[in-house]
Amino acid sequence: MVVSLMIIGLRDGLNLKGTTMSTVINCECGLVIQAQSDDALVEATMKHVEQDHPELVGKIGHEDILNWAEEAS
């Protein structure tokens, strides 16, 4: 299942319509998070962690998330 940052952003009230996705994280739960910038990717990933992996809250940070990121194809 691929969920773009645009979809996540619209659900959370962010206005990200029309962004071009270029960075991706493939979560081990199967969710794919894509974003145009590092900051947007970190924000979307942290929201995902809070919602779906609360046991990881406070255990991962900005650099961890960026280390997981890959260039979207």
Mean pLDDT: 79
C-alpha termini separation: 15 Å
Question: What does the radius of gyration come to?
Answer: 11 Å
Helix content: 25-40%
Net shape: globular
| Spatial order of the strands forming the largest sheet | 1-3-2-4
Fold and architecture overview:
This protein has 73 residues and is an alpha+beta fold. The protein has one domain. Helices cover 40% and strands 18% of the residues. It is built from 3 helices and 4 strands; from the N terminus they run βαββααβ. The chain has a 4-stranded mixed beta sheet with strand order 1-3-2-4. It is globular and about 30 Å long. The relative contact order is 0.21. Mean pLDDT is 79; it is low at 1-19.
Summarize the structure.
By secondary structure, this protein is α+β, with helices and mostly antiparallel strands.
